[in-house]
Specification:
By secondary structure, the chain is α/β, with parallel strands linked by helices. It has helices at residues 203-208, 213-228, 233-243, 248-258; strands at 2-3, 11-13, 18-19, 24-25, 30-31, 36-37, 42-43, 48-49, 54-55, 59-61, 66-67, 72-75, 88-91, 96-97, 102-104, 112-115, 120-121, 126-127, 132-133, 138-139, 144-145, 150-151, 156-157, 162-163, 168-169, 174-175, 180-181, 189-192, 197-201. The chain has a twelve-stranded mixed beta sheet with strand order 1-2-5-8-11-14-17-20-23-26-28-29. Strands 3-6-9-12-15-18-21-24-27 form a nine-stranded parallel beta sheet, with no helix packed on it. Strands 4-7-10-13-16-19-22-25 form an eight-stranded parallel beta sheet, with no helix packed on it.
């Protein structure tokens, strides 16, 4: 069915789709059978919504995105402290959300749950309330974020990864499938094992993203000092500040560790 009403003149929706008159849809939107778009939803141009998907009130989705079938986007948090306050779910541009993904909106603590640009969320991913998922993140099938988790740019979570609430995952991290993070994971590393531990540098990922051999070498040197030396972590951090700072990547590592609230794996 082609909806020919004002702002939605180029929206193509199956006859069984329910689209609120109070939704704000861009150009060239496609909505599949039995999907439901509630009041106050905003969807950018060229975005495709699959079958049996619900986009709840307070959700904003960017342009050129694709949401597959049986997804629940922007539903209320699974948090008993939630009292019905108005909060948001914000999803960026060019983001792919595969089948059976669930994303809960924020609570009064942060007010919103955000997913960035160029993100890939594979089947059955769950993102809880007040999470921040930044640009170019990949979450493989059934990976799950507790509330208030932050996933920084270009991080990748393998299938079935569980991230405890309030944890932070650094940029360019790769966490192997089936593991769980209950503390913060600093940037640029491979994280493996139970309990989760440092497994080396994500060298392949860094090379793919244009990091030079010199930059990767400096990152390795910093982490050898922090994870592999006989120094205590506090002393190793001070040595890193003394001998290895004034490099943007090492400074990123130092700042991440300094600002960790849950501690480092």
């Amino acid at each position: 069915m082609l909806i020919g009403q004002d702002r939605r003149i180029t929206t193509t929706a199956h006859p069984t789709a329910l689209i609120s008159e109070k939704a704000n849809l861009g150009k060239n939107i496609t909505v599949g059978p039995f999907s439901n778009i509630e009041d106050g939803v905003s969807i950018g141009d060229n975005t495709i919504i699959g079958n049996y998907t619900t986009i709840c009130s307070g959700t904003t989705i960017g342009r050129d995105s694709k949401i597959f079938h049986n997804c629940s986007i922007g539903e209320i948090p699974q948090d008993l402290k939630f009292t019905g306050e108005e909060t948001e779910t914000i999803i960026g541009n060019n983001t792919i959300i595969r089948e059976n993904v669930t994303i809960n909106r924020g609570t009064s603590a942060l007010g919103k749950t955000t997913v960035g640009n160029n993100v890939l969320l594979m089947a059955a991913v769950h993102i809880a309330h007040d999470c921040i998922v930044k640009d170019n993140v990949i979450m493989a099938n059934m990976s799950t974020l507790g509330g208030h988790v932050e996933i920084q740019e270009y991080a990748s979570l393998g299938g079935g990864v569980l991230v405890h609430q309030f944890c932070k995952i650094g940029s360019h991290v790769f966490i192997g499938g089936g593991f769980r993070a209950v503390q913060d994971v600093p940037p640029y590393i491979l994280a493996v094992g139970e309990p989760l531990r440092f497994g080396g540098i994500n060298s392949i990922g860094l090379k793919r993203r244009g990091y030079s051999s010199d930059s990767i070498s400096k990152i390795k040197k910093a982490y050898r000092m922090y994870f592999r030396s006989d120094l205590t972590r506090s002393i190793a951090l001070e040595k890193m500040k003394e001998k290895l700072s004034n490099n943007v990547d090492v400074d990123n590592i130092i700042n991440f560790i300094d600002n960790s609230e849950r501690g480092i794996i």
